[in-house]
Write a structure and sequence with these properties.
This protein is an alpha/beta fold. The chain folds into two domains: 148 residues, Quinone Oxidoreductase, Chain A, domain 1 (Alpha-Beta Complex), CATH 3.90.180.10; 144 residues, Rossmann fold (3-Layer(aba) Sandwich). The protein is built from ten helices and 15 strands. Strand 11, helix 7 and strand 12 form a beta-alpha-beta unit. Helix 3 crosses helix 4 and helix 3 packs across helix 9. The longest helix has 16 residues. The radius of gyration is 20 Å and the shape is globular. 45% of the residues are buried.
């Protein structure tokens, strides 16, 4: 089979398209014929060594496809089942072995590409809005990168929960996408200081929660957007890691809360993972959640996909198609 392999950490150029042996499923595992692969920022962190993985490895932590074979003691799925998964390294390939407990059945009316697009980013948006800081009517939330893959889904879920949403984007084209997802207010951070604008839009009160996937360049001003006892939910670092800071700042700015969550910690059991995924699938089937797949690349074009993602030239979901 063909797969993308990383033999040394570095830039997109280290993603190599190679011939590899087909893996064999072990106890409790299934072999998946992959139909669509999700591209996420965590893939760049693995590639760059920020999140170390044993070399060589195939990047990618999400995909959708068909069960081709199963190992011993597998009861969750059968050969021929259509499934999606996340949180298992190695999806940049034509086939992948996955623990059956991580596999989610795809509804009959949903295609593989949509299912793949809803896993990491959809599940992330779900736990952010429903659990890391549970949104409710009357809450005002600031969503950075509101036209990105997580951003567009998070805006929709936040509106579904009754929150007011202020989104930040870099261009007017991205602003239109975020407005289409339901954002109440848009701040073009390339033209306006977002902290000043958020304070203006909230009459100087600030917001209850900031969902920040950008990290280094937004962190300090994100804290400045919060109400007393507000939450900064830092779930990514597309601009680089946040440098060390004095926790006393949280006190000085109003007894603030800071959390750095991960999807793995918000899907600790199969039941929790299934609940989140089934919510997303149901909302999509009911027309309450739109999935924007804006960019598709062939598996062999993984380098280009990473260049576009890290160059902030993407909106919505990026997929690789084996």
């Amino acid at each position: 089979m063909k797969a993308i392999r990383v033999h040394e950490i570095g830039g997109p150029e280290v993603l190599k398209y190679e011939e590899c042996p087909v893996p064999t499923p072990g106890t409790g595992q299934a072999l998946i014929q992959i139909e669509a692969v999700g591209v996420n920022y965590i893939d760049t962190y693995h590639r760059e060594g920020l999140y170390p993985a044993p070399l060589p490895f195939s990047p990618g932590v999400e995909a959708a496809g068909i069960v081709e074979a199963i190992g011993p003691e597998v009861e969750d799925v059968q050969v021929g089942d259509r499934v999606a998964y996340c949180l298992t390294l190695g999806s940049y390939a034509e086939k992948s072995v996955v623990d059956s407990s991580k596999l989610i059945s795809i509804p009959a009316r949903m295609d593989h590409r949509t299912a793949a697009a809803l896993m990491v980013q959809g599940l992330t948006a779900h736990y952010l809005a429903c659990d890391s800081y549970p949104l409710r009517p009357g809450t005002t939330a600031l969503v950075h990168a509101a036209a990105g893959g997580v951003g567009l889904l998070l805006v929709q879920i936040a509106k579904r929960l009754g929150a007011r949403v202020i989104g930040t984007v870099s261009t007017e084209a991205k602003a239109e996408l975020a407005r289409g997802a339901g954002a109440d207010e848009i701040v073009l951070y390339s033209e306006t200081d977002f902290e000043t604008e958020v304070q203006r839009l909230t009459d100087g009160q600030g917001v209850e929660v900031v969902y920040d996937s950008v990290g280094q360049t937004t962190f300090e001003k994100s804290l400045g957007c919060l109400k007393p006892r507000g939450y900064l939910v830092l779930f990514g670092q597309s601009s680089g890691p946040v440098i060390s800071f004095d926790p006393q700042i949280l006190n000085q700015k109003g007894s603030l809360f800071l959390t750095r969550p991960t999807l793995a910690d918000y899907s600790l059991t199969r039941e929790e993972l299934s609940k989140r995924a089934n919510d997303l699938f149901s909302w999509h089937s009911d027309g309450e959640l739109d999935v924007r797949i804006a960019h598709t690349f062939r598996l062999v074009e993984a380098q280009q996909a990473h260049q576009e993602l890290q160059g902030r030239r993407t909106t919505g979901k990026v997929l690789l198609i084996p």
